[in-house]
Amino acid sequence: AMTGEITLRGKVLPIGGVKEKLLAAHRFGLKTLILSKENEKDLADVPEEVRGELTIHTVETIDEVLMFALETEKSEESASDETPQIWSPNTTSSEISATIE
Questions:
Q1: What is the CATH classification number for the domain harbouring 51?
Q2: Residues of 27-38 as b/e, b for ≥16 C-beta within 10 angstroms?
Q3: For residue 22, is pLDDT > 90?
Q4: In this structure, is residue 95 part of a structural domain?
Q5: Total number of domains constituting the chain
Q6: Is the pTM of this model over 0.90?
Q7: For 39, how many CA atoms within 13 A lie in the half-sphere containing its CB?
Q8: CA angle at residue 80 from 76 to 85, to 5 degrees?
Q9: Does the residue 85 lie in any domain?
Q10: 6 and 62 Cβ atoms separated by less than 8 Å
Q11: Which tens digits make up the pLDDT trace of 72-89?
């Protein structure tokens, strides 16, 4: 889940209610959060024990958001030598279904 606003030029704007949003995220078990660099000062309002259990990335641009949001952890499955199947835009759903076990 994400909340916030970006400009047409890709600048990430600050949000309100940072403390409440981080406490709710922590309560629901989220571990990694992305926050506008301009909201960094608001982190002082979040209890230290909560901040210590979160990884908080502060960003200025949508490019930075995408870098963190699309980051994936290496799993045993992704670390295998098997090449993943890549489909063309013209592949039909029945062709894809036929290859799924």
A1: 3.30.230.10
A2: eeeeeebbbbee
A3: yes
A4: no
A5: 1
A6: no
A7: 25
A8: 115
A9: no
A10: yes
A11: 665 445 555 555 566 677
Cβ proximity of 61 and 69 under 8 Å: no
35-44: per-residue pLDDT in tens? 999 999 999 9
Q: Does 71 score more than 60 pLDDT?
A: yes
* CA 31 vs CA 16, 22, 49, 50, 52: distances in Å: 20, 10, 13, 10, 10
Q: Got the DSSP string for the chain? A: ----EE-TT-BEEP-S-HHHHHHHHHHTT--EEEEEGGGGGGGGGS-HHHHTT-EEEEESBHHHHHHHHT-----TTTTSSPPPP---TT--HHHHHHH--
Is 18's pLDDT higher than 50? yes
Residue 64 φ/ψ, nearest 5 degrees: -70, -40
**For residue 94, is it within any domain?**
no
Residue with tokens 């890549």: 86
pLDDT at 12 over 60: yes
Residue 29 has pLDDT above 60, yes or no: yes
Domain of residue 68 covers 1-73
